[in-house]
Amino acid sequence: MRIKTGHAGKPNDPGIIPDYSKLNKLLFDALTGKNQQIVWQKDMFKNNVGDKCYHELITIGILIEDDILKVNYKPGMAAVSVIQRTTVVRFYHKLFAEWYAANYLSKCAGSWFPLWLRNKFKKINPVDLQFVFRFACGLNKEASSRIIKYLKGMEGGQSFASLCFFEQVGEADDVVAIVEKLLTRGATIRSTDSKLLQRSTIQILDIAVKSNPVQN
User: What top-level branch of life does the organism fall under (predicted)?
Assistant: First the structure.
């Protein structure tokens, strides 16, 4: 899947998105941590990724600065000290953060030991962070095979594994052919299905519908 925002002046080609290893790891840890983080103090973020990376992200529009007012009142403080201005940063869309996290995962999944890697996989909630898995599969063929094998072993993971496999397929017509084959026996969405299975089935059906528009 390609990253697109649909807004003028915003990046619509992942080829122009810079690749920085410190940024990749920072975002993987932030998205998969116990308390997911999607907003950072400007100085902290800048110190972690470096000046060059920071300014490039700002320049191409992926990263956005926001000034916020913070109330920091303590008894005895002067009124002027109660309200403080601080600058935070966030990504224009969470999808960009998932792209960088996927870059980290794709490199790990392509080279690290299986047990260590499995622990990394377990940190990723595929319902919330599906594109971390999907982008990683598109970035690294060896990583893709390991990720898909892991997903097939999850409850309701078979359909999602198919979506990840599509990221390795070069032509749209080939994806459509695979989807049609998957749906030859029909598709059923049950209330008892896991959220992952329900969402994956809907997305596969959506691909099928869009590839075969109704003729008037």
Answer: Eukaryota
